[in-house]
Amino acid sequence: MRTLGKLAFWTLAVVLLPMAAHAQEAAEAAAGDATWGYAVGAGLAVGLAGLGCGIGQGLTAGNTTAGIARNPGAAGNMFTNFILGMVLIESIAIYGFLVGILLVFSI
Predict the structure, then answer these.
(1) What is the model's pTM?
(2) What's the rounded Cα separation, in Å, for the pair 101 and 105?
(3) Residue 20's pLDDT is what?
C-alpha cells in the first residue's frame, strides 16, 4: 500500500508540476480569452459519455455471456436483445460526441 501511495504522489507531482510552472502565463492568457470553458465542456462531454458507455457495454456483454452460458437454448433471443442494447448504449456516446463537437465549434 505504501508503494501505491508513492506512485500516486509522484504521478500527481509529474502531472501538476508543469501546470504550476506555467500558471502565470495561463492566468494572463485566460484573462483575455473566455472560451476555455467550451473546450473543458467538450472534453467532459466526450469523456464522460465514453466512460458511461464503456461501463454499460461491459455490463451488458458480461451479463449476456453469463446468460448464454447458463441457458444456451436462449442464445438467439439474448443475442438480439444484446445487439439492441449495444446500439442504444452507443447512441449515448454519439450524443456526447455531438455535444462536444457543438461546443468546440461554438468557440
Answers:
(1) 0.61
(2) 6
(3) 60
